[in-house]
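Hi P.,

Sorry for the delay on this. The queue was packed all week, but I finally got your sequence through. Input first:
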Amino acid sequence: MAASKDNMTPAQKLKALNQLQTIDSRLDEFSVLKGELTMEVEDLQDEIEGLQTRIGNIEQSIDDQKAEIARHHANIAKANDSITRYNKQLEDVKNNREYEALSKEIELQGLEIQLSEKRIREANNIVKNKEATLEVSKERLTVKNKDLETKKVELEKIILDTEKEEAKLVRKQERARKKIHHRLLKGYDKIRNAYRNGLAVVTVERDACGGCFNRIPPQVQVEIGNRKKIMLCEHCGRILVDDNINEVS
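Then the structure:
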C-alpha cells in the first residue's frame, strides 16, 4: 500500500517530486515547441500585415505620381493651345506693344511646358523606382505567405500529434500532485516558477548541480544518496536527487 502524503519518508517524497518534475518537463517541452511555432506564426502574420501595408502605400504613391504626370500632360496641352492661339493673334497685331505682350505670353507658356516636362521626368523616375520596390515587396510577400502556410500546417500537425499524449500527461500530473503534501508542493512550484526551464528537481551530474552546474561537495552527494532528508542546492535552491531515486519503493 502506498504511504499517505503525511506519512511518506523523505525518499518517497523525493521520488514523488522527481516523478512530478519528469511529467512537468515533458509538458514544458510541448508548451515550448508549440509556443515557438505560435510565435513564429504570429511574427509572420505581423510581417505580412506590414508588407501589405507597405505595398498599399507604394501603390498609392505610384497612383499619385501617375495622376501628377497626367496633370502635367494636361498643362502641356493647355500651354500648347495657348501658344497656338497667341501665334495666331500675332498675325493681327497693330503695334509693338501688342507684339511684345503676346511674345511674352508665348515665352511664359514655353517655360510652363519645360517645367511640366521636367516634373514628368521626375515623376516617371519616381514611378520606376517605386515599381521596382513594389515588385520586390510583392515577391517577399509571396515567400512570407508560403512560409506562413508551412508553419501553420506544422503547428496544426504538432497539436494533433501531441494532443492525446498531452491530455494523458495532464491526468498523470494531477494524480502526481495529489500524492505530495501541499507545503512541499508549494515549495516545488515556487522553485519551478523561478526558472525559465521550469526545473525544480535535478540530479547531480558530474559532481555538479544539474540545474545551475555549480559543484556539489562529496559529503553533500553522500547525503543526497542516503535520501534521509530533502537536500537543496546551496547555489540555486533546486531540490537535488540521485540517479536511482525512482527505484525507491
